[in-house]
Amino acid sequence: ETGVTQTPRHLVMGMTNKKSLKCEQHLGHNAMYWYKQSAKKPLELMFVYSLEERVENNSVPSRFSPECPNSSHLFLHLHTLQPEDSALYLCASSQDERVYTGELFFGEGSRLTVL
Amino acid sequence: AQKVTQAQTEISVVEKEDVTLDCVYETRDTTYYLFWYKQPPSGELVFLIRRNSFDEQNEISGRYSWNFQKSTSSFNFTITASQVVDSAVYFCALIPAYGQNFVFGPGTRLSVLP
Fold it and tell me: pLDDT tens for residues A39-62?
């Protein structure tokens, strides 16, 4: 199994739908992250979970709701999204909750299109 | 505030050419870490290197080399004898020590043509 697995890889949803993105890491890491990658924009950190507790939320709209039930799984629940939310959503993990000690390991991303 | 600039949006080279990707950063922190990541077409970002602010030694790893110059706040990445498999988007990133938020540059798309 690859280190960080994201499902689904592609998702198309209407603005009134509710869907979830799933991330699973098989690396025994303690911190997990959601990043958003839009066209022509730098990677944006959305949420950070360290030891299953949210430690950072970069002013993300409430239509994005993260959930971290355990250190291996991370979800991003989506509801009433806008077309501008269409992007590649990347999950990442790091070994230590002190991020600066090491690198991030990324999944392949979930490509979201909001119609 | 931190900022990472990658002025080159896209670069195209022919296989076997050398290519340098530029990265310039801004930070007020005295201790920080710099990274390079590669994003191939499959989507995942792959870690290439980490360098802390106190280590200005250049590093070479196979065809890859990095030039860290604190005086100019630059952390440039050179690929020697480029190959088609090097085609990807490359991101430079900065994180202050004790921080949790990587600041990524906008990325440079490298195309290596056969």
Answer: 878 888 899 888 788 877 778 999
Cβ <8 Å between B101 and A42: no
Question: Which neighbouring-strand residues pair with B67?
Answer: B76
Tokens representing B51?
A: 């360098």
Name which of A9, A100, A112 to mutate to probe chain B: the one with the most chain B Cβ atoms within 10 A of its Cβ: A100
Q: In chain B, which stretches have pLDDT less than 50?
A: none
Mutate to test the interface with B, among A103, A106, A110, A112 (most CBs of B within 10 A): A103
- Residue A79 scores a pLDDT above 80: yes
- Could you please report the per-residue DSSP string of chain A? --SEEEE-SEEEE-TT-EEEEEEEE-S--SEEEEEEE-TTS--EEEEEEETTEEEEE-S--TTEEEEEEETTEEEEEEES--GGG-EEEEEEEESSSSGGGS--EE---EEEEE-
B33 at A interface, C-beta within 8 A: yes
Contact flag A92-B96 (C-beta cutoff 8 Å): no
Alpha-carbon torsion angle B110, B112, B113, B114, nearest 10: -170
Strand pairing class (A44-50; B103-104)? unpaired
Compute CA A108 distance to the chain's CA centroid, rounded to the nearest angstrom.
11
Nearest to B44 among A99, A106, A111 (CB): A106
Tokens 């959305």 map to which residue? Answer: A46
